[in-house]
Amino acid sequence: MAGETELIDSLTAEQAHAILKYLCDDASIASKVSAYATELKAEPRLTAICVQCDLPFDPSRNTYKKCRYHSGDMEVDWDGDCWADHDEDCHGAIDTEEMREEHPSGFFWNCCDRSGEQEGCRLGRHEADPSKSKRGMGYGSETDEGDQRVEEEDDDDDDDEGDGGDEDGEDDEDGGTDSRPVKKQKLSV
Questions:
Q1: Can you say whether residue 53 is alpha, beta or left, with left for phi > 0 and alpha for psi between -120 and 50 degrees?
Q2: How far apart are CA 95 and CA 110, in angstroms?
Q3: Residue 61, in any domain of the structure
Q4: Together in a domain, 38 and 50
Q5: Residues 24-51: tens digit of each pLDDT
Q6: Which residues contact 75 (CB under 8 A, 6 or more apart)?
Q7: CA angle 46, 49, 54 (to 5 degrees)
Q8: Other CB atoms within 10 Å distance of the CB of residue 11
Q9: Residue 118 resides in a domain
Q10: ∠62-36-185 over CA atoms, to 5°?
Q11: Nearest to 135 by CA among 75, 183, 73, 181
Q12: Containing structural domain, residue 18
C-alpha cells in the first residue's frame, strides 16, 4: 500500500484531476467525490480526508480526540429485521460495500457490537495515510495504543441515571440511543 500512496503523491494536479474524473464514472464514487469537494470548498483550510472516519480535516489542527472511528469491521446482522424480506437471488448479495452504505442498519460493528449506523467507538487523531489507519484493525489491538474507547453515551441533558429512555420518552430499537450516520458526525472538542 505504501508504494501506491507514494505514486499518488508524485502525481501532478492535472494527472490526479484526470484520474478523478475517470473514477467518477462510478455513481457511488462520484457521490463521495462531490460530498468531499463541497466540504473542502466550504472550509478551505481542510486539506486531507481521514482514512478512519472519512471526514475532511486540517492536519495542522489535528489534535487528540478529533477522530471518531470503529476499529473493527461491519458484519451482516443476520438476526435483525433488515434482511427479513431480502432474497439474494432476486435483490442481490447482502454482504457488499454497497449494501453497507445503503443499509447500515442491516450490519453491526464487530469491535463494539453496535449498529452499523452508530458513530465510532474509538477516539483518536485523524489519519490521512492509509498505511497508518487503525480502522478495521480489531478492537484492543496494539495499534489502538493511545486512542480511547468511547462508551455508549447518555444523550439526555437531564443527567438522570437509569431512566432507560431517551429525550422523547420512548425507547429506540437500539436500546435508547438515537442512531446517527457515521460519516455525517463531527466532534467538537
A1: alpha
A2: 14
A3: yes
A4: no
A5: 898 888 888 888 888 777 766 667 888 8
A6: 107, 108, 109, 110
A7: 125
A8: 12
A9: yes
A10: 60
A11: 73
A12: 1-42
